[in-house]
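Q: What would this chain look like folded?
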Amino acid sequence: MNNVDWQKEFPSAITVCDKDGIIVYMNQKAIDTFKDDGGERLIGSNVLDCHPEPSRTQVINMLKNGLSNSYTIQKKGKKKLIHQSPYFAEGNFAGLVEISIEMPEVLNNFVRS
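A: My prediction, written as structure tokens:
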């Protein structure tokens, strides 16, 4: 499995922006998910332009301070878990990764010790 581009066909949307908020990568699921907003043409644009307030201010804060954010949404009849997390290059904050995972209506929760 050397040099496998696993994220390309990963079944959840993955969008990556650099520390300035410029979208540098979208996997195929993200391109398909955001096709009405420009799809692949969003690469090279600023992620802040994709977020209205108050989420725009939240993303600015995450970019400024390297913070994570997780929440669920329901859109077009699909429930999704959104996780936004900083990524690092050689220990330095490099930007944010957003993973959007479609969730089943009923989700098991296991408490483990």
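The chain has a mean pLDDT of 94.
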